[in-house]
Amino acid sequence: MPKPVRLMGAHEIRVRLGGVSRQRAYQITSRADFPTPAADLAQGKIWFTEDVEKWISERRPHQADVEDTES
Q1: What is the SS3 assignment for 3?
Q2: CA atoms within 13 Å, Cβ hemisphere of 58
Q3: Reported pTM
Q4: What GO molecular function annotation could you give as one example from this UniProt entry (predicted)?
């Protein structure tokens, strides 16, 4: 059975980063070292959860241990 694709939008990233503001989430997701979006939809960009989690663990290790409670 194929592994399900897990995606995150800006809201999920905001929550995952501890409730940062929309503006701060935009700043973070616009950084050159942030993962490339999986798609750019009418409602906004979406990212593969695995890519975002890897970025967090490498660049924000103090937040890497926080569990994603919405999954």
Answers
A1: coil
A2: 9
A3: 0.82
A4: DNA binding
